[in-house]
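Worked example 2:
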Amino acid sequence: MRIIEEVVFQSTSRDPMEIAELMMSFPGLPMLGCHHAYIAGGALMAAIKNEASRGITNEDIKEVFRRTKKQAHGGFCGLTGVCGVVPAIGAVFAVLTGSKCGTDSEQRITMEATARLGRAIAELTGPSCCKAYVRTSLEVAIKYLKESLGIELPLSSVSSCIYSARHPHGCRELNCPYFSKTAADVNKPANTNVTTNGHSIRDFSSKEDAMNFLLQKSLEFGAEKAKIIDTDTVVVEEWVRWKCQYGCPLYDKDAFHPPCAPDAESTKKVLKEYSKAILINGPKGKALSEVAVRLEDIAYHMGYYKAFALTALSSGLSGVT
């Protein structure tokens, strides 16, 4: 929640999808879970606050979070048929309208919003996907905000989903409107053994050959430069400082750590578990982030089960590369 709150309270964007995608790109965020309810409600409220026509404050956002906490519980999308994203965005409409039991149009508008959200989410189920639910709910909510309350917000399109290979129940792939059509070339399709063109660590004569294979893949995916490095050559304090200075649009604007940056000590503990890394760079932060996540997936399916992407770049806010 700390990361979500920092992003939501500090964002200056009027685009809810942009704010939500930034939060969902945080490496420590699980693929599924009710934190997505806070992401959806928080992103929508932050955008409305930044749109500035309704005088929304951070305290209003906290109220949405408090209400969300009462109804968004893990697994209840299956146990009761109500995804936590629905009451989260319902809480947004309730705060905006002043809806409570016994009110007239305020409660009707709020209930109409949740009815539309529930239908949209049901159309994407089979199996469930919290990230798809966030996206479709924001699309529905933005349209209904304009229709019911006259609040107009921009809506960026989702270029391609980079999380399909991480889905524990199997991605819906082509049945999902957010699925990347090229992801099938590198991601493991649900319930099959097709992964990295059949490669595993055992297929290579040495670990060096396996690492060189990953190195080549990173360039194929779009990295401008790539090289294999020893992790003990990384000066962790400098890494984190660079991540903050060059990867966060909020750098030096307030007293908080950037939303997606761990502190130096935490990073140092993680790196001690590894001996080699592939260092990649490129001119576009968001595109390079996708390269890193795709490479992480390739490495995992080759047998590097502890592989992970550690980025020192922007997660995609407008104007940041």
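The beta strands are 225-230, 276-281. DSSP finds twelve helices and two strands in the chain.
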